[in-house]
Structure formats: C-alpha cells, structure tokens
C-alpha cells in the first residue's frame, strides 16, 4: 500500500502543472471539431520567469517542441507528447524577447501577440502597440533575441491606421504559398467594422466578414492542411454579457466580389454553458489537429486553458 501511495504522490508531482478541465456544456452542441483533450496550465515560474498572459503558441513537429509567448514579451519552450491526448508538457526553457543587440524592448513596445514558425523553422512574432513583425532566435544562448525585422505593408506601418494601439497585429501565420500572413484584431479605421482583412507581407489581400457578435475581433489564425485559414474570433462586451469565442474556416481560394467564403466550425458562448476563457492562440500540431490556448490576463479568477482538438472533414 505504501508503494502505491508513493507512486500516486510522484505522479501528482509530475502532472500538477496540467489539470484536467471540461469547457464543453453538459449537452454538447453539434460541432465541426472533436475535442481530444483539455487542460488548465498551472505553472508558476519557468527559469525565474512568471508564466502568465499567454497570447499565442507555435509547434515544431520535428523536435516536438511547443513555443508559447506572453503578451508581456516572454517566451517559453516546452517538450511535448501528443497522441490522442496531451501526454506530457515539460518546460525546458524561458527567456525575455529582446532586440538584436540583446537590449530589452520598452514596456510599450513589447506587446507580443502573434507567433508562428516559418517553412525553415524560424520563429516569427508579431507585436501590438508599435506594430511590427520579426524573426527571433531559438538558440539556447540567444533564445528570444531578434534576428530580423520584416517590412510591413504601407497601411500597417502607421499607428494611426488602427482603431487603437491595442487592436493591431494580433494574429500571425505562415503559408507555404503566400508566406507570412497577419490580421489586425479589429479592421483598420478606413474599413467597415465587419470587414476583416488577411494581409500577406508581399501585398496580397483577402477579405472576410467578422462574426455578427458586437466587438468581435480576430485573436489568432493558423494555416490548415488544405491551405485555407483557421480563424479564432472572440467577442467580449462586459462582465455580465455573453463571452463568445468562434472557430471558423476561411477559404482563401474561394473568394468572389472581394469576399472569401467562411464556415463556422464551433461557436462557444458562456451563456450557453461553455466554460471558456480568453482564447488567444492557435497552433497546428498534426494533420487536422490543433492546440488552442487562453490568456489568463494575470488575473486570479482566470485560467490558462490548453485545448487539443481535431477539425472534422
């Protein structure tokens, strides 16, 4: 009996940082996704850096490493094991995101929101506040140090183009055909509030309609196996109003009259039994399989949720 108890205590110590949760209502609605696993991440500090306010994630299938970025300019690296569930998530490194000379970004310029890996395994990060996109080192000694700056399309360079400094380059993805893609959280001032735009850095544009809920903004994008775009939108109007998170597919090669076709995969509404939080990040981790993460806003009453799901054919 003592041996069994020691084994249980050991397991609790290993997996205490991942706590099982359930975000789905008791009566599950029809969805075009299948949820494989759901965890609350309860890490405190990793290599002395506080784990909180996660805004996006990226996955390298070759090394089975998962990268998570905080909107406070903090980068975390985990070793993962993914099968039909999240088998393991072990922190192995952490660093502050820095300029190429190793200097810290100013507080108002380190709002890291979007993240992805390009076709060569380079880590790309987009920023709100002072909108920018850069490539950052994954080397152990230089982890989080900027290697390269990218030139933004002209309409994304001017801070006055955005509806606010906190509504700029929220989402980032890399497409094998179109390269780096980015989306502002809310449409630019010159655009209709329900007209969202996907920007390729080389100049191509795609437009799709934002969800009908008020203040619905894009918080993450990811390229799917068929080359189309998985989009995460969220709508928050206030503490006593429904918080709505939508996952939808935007068909980049099915556009006409300026608009791309889209299809809602699931709509999660707190007033309909969904136990969700502020989902901000997406990463493709396998064929039709993705991870989605939430930002706890460094708030005791919120959680960092990691949801592993599969998009149905």
Report what the structure shows.
With 313 residues, this protein is mostly beta strands. The protein has a single domain, classed as Neuraminidase (6 Propeller), CATH 2.120.10. Helix content is 6%, strand content 50%. The protein is built from 2 helices and 23 strands. The chain has helices spanning 2-15, 154-157; strands at residues 18-20, 33-41, 45-46, 49-50, 54-60, 65-70, 74-82, 86-96, 112-117, 123-127, 132-136, 146-149, 169-175, 179-184, 195-200, 205-209, 216-223, 229-235, 244-256, 259-269, 278-286, 289-295, 304-311. The strands form 6 sheets. It has a 5-stranded antiparallel beta sheet with strand order 1-2-23-22-21, with no helix packed on it. A hairpin with a 4-residue loop joins strand 10 (123-127) and strand 11. It is globular and about 45 Å long. Residues 1-15 have low confidence and may be disordered.
* Radius of gyration, whole Å: 19 Å
Strand content: over 45%
Gross morphology is globular
The helix count comes to 2
User: What is the name of the CATH topology?
Assistant: Neuraminidase
| Biggest sheet statistics | 5 strands, antiparallel
- How do the SSEs run, as a string of H and E? HEEEEEEEEEEEEHEEEEEEEEEEE
Placed side by side, the strands forming the largest sheet appear as 1-2-23-22-21
Helicity level, as a percent range? under 10%
Mean pLDDT over the residues: 93
Which architecture would the CATH scheme give at its second level? 6 Propeller
Please identify the structural class as seen in this structure: mainly beta
**Spans of at least 5 consecutive residues with low confidence:** 1-15
Q: Could you say how many structural domains there are in total?
A: 1
Q: Class in CATH?
A: Mainly Beta
N- and C-termini, Cα separation: 48 Å
Secondary structure tally: strands: 23
